[in-house]
Design a protein that fits this description.
The protein is an alpha/beta fold and about 400 residues long. It folds into two domains: about 140 residues, Aspartate Aminotransferase, domain 1 (Alpha-Beta Complex); about 220 residues, Aspartate Aminotransferase, domain 2, CATH 3.40.640.10. It has twelve helices and twelve strands. It has a seven-stranded mixed beta sheet, sandwiched between helices. Strands 9-12-11 form a three-stranded antiparallel beta sheet. The longest helix has 22 residues.
Length: about 400
Amino acid sequence: MEFRRISALPPYAFAEIDRLKLELRRAGEDVIDLGFGNPDLPSPPEAVAKLQEAAAKERNHRYSSSRGIPRLRAAVCELYRRRFGVELDPETQALTTIGAKEGLSHLMWVLVQPGDVAVVPTPTYPIHTYAPVLAGATVAQARVDGGFAAFEEAFASAPVRPRVIVLSYPHNPTTTVAEPDLFERAVAFARENEVLIAHDFAYADIAFDGYRPPSILEVEGAADVAVELYTLTKGFSMAGWRVGFLLGNAEVVGALARLKSYLDYGTFQPIQIAAIVAMNEAPGYPDEITEIYRGRRDVLCRGLARIGWEIEPPRATMFVWAEIPEPYRAEGSQAFAVRLAREARVAVSPGAGFGPGGEGYVRFALVENEQRIAQATRGIRRALAELESPARAPR
């Protein structure tokens, strides 16, 4: 049987590392998993308590609303007003999604169809590329390190006029951040060229060293040409809860709401109620989470620097994007990730899995505590004997 829609999907890029990790663990090896970006920190206790309370009420077990209950949409609009100075109408400019990944996937069903083109970054989180593909569109890729000029060039060279440009800052996997002028340029370009900007803002809450990630909706007039995906997954450490939002352009929000009315009844209502409490009663929780990730970032970067693998500490996200050291670069990211798993007992994500722009890099996820991350750097030191660390270098 031919499975037409998924035939365009390549084999899962991280499958070999996952298989090897499982094999080693079954053999009794202690593998430190810094590959899968699965937050290990607890959700806000206020939200957990409210979930327990709400789940005990039978009326909350009925179908909910695919748009999200009104108080939840009001809560995220209040968060945007408080955090970014952005005024949004919860009735027309806010929609609840079952996580940002589901939101982006179904957003592409609304925006593109076979014959259309979407401009997406490379390297990037795989759904940015494959959500348009699953909707039947083709993609034009723009290198993240080229700034918005790369997106303009990809737009101009596309075989047909693209209908959407996907942005994502702070960026997964490269940790690239945006300053307000990038979004100002993007909004002006979108207005001039009648194209929609879809900004995945999944790492809005995790930034370090005084950097504050801007929302594209802070730009004057952005809601005319842009939508933004926000989520409680990272900053509020609520990954399994699947609470995301689409915000901004009312016409696009309404279109996705119409599609979702055919597809789902929204997230379990007690989860929606608890999410309201998280945003309203634990607004400082992302700061606590961020401080933990900052400590982990510093331990990893300092530990790698001590063995001769210098990496600039990221200004945002829960990842470290690391160029493969010169003595091992020719191996390629997949083979290098296998080396780290086998010889260092550390699992990382090969950069090639994030698209052609990712070759030559690996991604570390900061999902283990500082002691385990320090242990990981010691294992990496043993595995990368060709590195000339400051401690080993002749004086």
